[in-house]
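Whether sequence alone determines local backbone shape is best considered at the level of individual chains. The sequence in question and its structure tokens are set out directly beneath this paragraph.

***
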Amino acid sequence: MTTSEKLMGIAEHLMELDPVRTYPQRGATVLASLVGAHSYRLERPDEEPVSSESALTANEPTISLPLRRGRTPVGTLHLEIVGDAPVGKELEVLKWASRIYSKGLGCAERLVDEGSRRPGEAVEQTLRRAPLTPRERDVVSLLVAGSSTRDIASETGLTVSTVNTYLKRIFSKLGVHSRVELIARMAGTATIPPRASYEAPPPD
């Protein structure tokens, strides 16, 4: 697997918002797996901490990863590492992933509030008004429903590469820059995060 494919896989896992109520745990698990952490604890203002099944201990080195949306702190993810703490490229990838995770947390929190989430019929109406081809609407519908790139390829009979090409074209047409932004736009959440927050570190 190339570095670019690995980064794409990480981003895809962090952008799978549904089911939104389990997003904090699922995203934290992805970040923990990047550095071989055997346990984590997510702390956010006004929220109960979210922990892995294995509790943090005082004997292992821990990374405390600040989570921000823009310049606003939204929490801290504590990771307990087995072995050496990440450095260099591994640490850069972890920080990049944490930015995606922070944006995903914001979208998931808004979507949990039923009042901020559009019903499926309203999403379909939004899609019909969007300047997209029928096949592009199919791709967006599947993405909003929680399908991965491979799921979309299997469902539509397209290749993974072609699905990614469709997504780039859709992003351009709708003025968004990532899957999280696209899902937020379709589902009716508020602020669309800036593109720079999602730019991946350069491959090796």
Remarks:
- Residues 115 and 188 are 10 Å apart (CA to CA).
- The beta strands are 37-43, 50-51, 62-69, 72-81.
- The longest helix spans residues 88-112.
- Residues 118-188 form a domain with the Arc Repressor Mutant, subunit A fold (CATH 1.10.10.10).
